[in-house]
Design a protein that fits this description.
Order of helices and strands: EEH
Number of helices: 1
Helix content: 10-25%
Largest sheet: 2 strands, antiparallel
Strand order of the largest sheet: 1-2
């Protein structure tokens, strides 16, 4: 029989990341030293968000 291997999932530590608010419902987390404006632009272009 085959041995079942446990799934090892490592989640990022949100305490070490910076929160960026996109809109009232959306918050993304980026690296602590990254530019929040650049992250907003990339998020908006990637998901095709519409301006409300």
């Amino acid at each position: 029989m085959y041995e079942k291997k446990p799934n090892i999932v490592k989640t990022p530590d949100l305490a070490k990341m910076q929160a960026v608010v996109i809109n009232l419902r959306t918050i993304i987390y980026i690296a602590a030293g990254a530019d929040p404006e650049e992250a907003r632009k990339r998020y908006m272009s990637r998901f095709g968000c519409k301006k409300e």
